[in-house]
Amino acid sequence: MLDIKKKLFNLIENTNKIRKISCNKFVFHFLFGKKDVYSQFKVNIDTKCLVLVQYPGAETKGLGGLIAQYPKNFEILCLTNGSNMLEDINPVESTIIKRQQFQDVMKKIRIKGSKIFDIDSDTLKNQYSTFKKIDFSEADYIFVPNIYDNNIDTIALLKHLKQALKDKEYKSKLKILMYESDFALSTFDYYVDISTIIETKKKMLKEYYPEDKYPKLTEKITGINAFRSICLEGEYCEAFLSFTPDEFIKIPLI
Questions:
Q1: pTM: predicted TM-score of the whole model, two decimal places
Q2: Which of 50, 63, 65, 145 could form a disulfide with 201 if both were Cys (CB 3.0 to 4.6 A apart)?
Q3: Alpha-carbon torsion (203, 57, 39, 46), positive or negative
Q4: What total number of domains does the chain contain?
């Protein structure tokens, strides 16, 4: 079976068709020989996690429970400033509000390190010179948004990381983990039980999405965490899809 997968992948690669393949995780699992085994994500005292975020709040949607459980193990880098995220508010004011929300959430959960870059929404694709300055050398895990998010800054973030993995040094055992922010993963292999800290995640979400302006949005976002728990431990879970750097670099992007 693995020999068939290898031949198929070589055929696709040799015929220069790989970039035309739909970005379907089941296809990647098939091509790379990955197994549908769910493992609980473990954080040890010295585990170092770097989270790359396409806009303020995406980190809380995707792994707010995990980072709130282990704030000393995480560094959060938000690559854009949210300049176009608030309707009927000019970009400058939107940037101020979203920056403050991000900083407030990071402060409340006492995250080890965090930064929000001064890059306007939808312009990250032009900022590799800034992105490549990020130090990846100490990270055991790099968390990135789901490729299915279909957001211009998400695609730019993933493209920049692919290039950075070619240009920069990183640990030999580094893993790239995709998280769910705007769209659900079609499959996953790591999960975290966040049942004991779900109320903290809800408070974090409400900092970005107040109930008076976004009725029931927090419940809808955490609904995916409840759904994930159907076949896993706990009442609420966050799920992730992992790749080695070599696997991640081979993922075709539009």
A1: 0.86
A2: 65
A3: negative
A4: 2
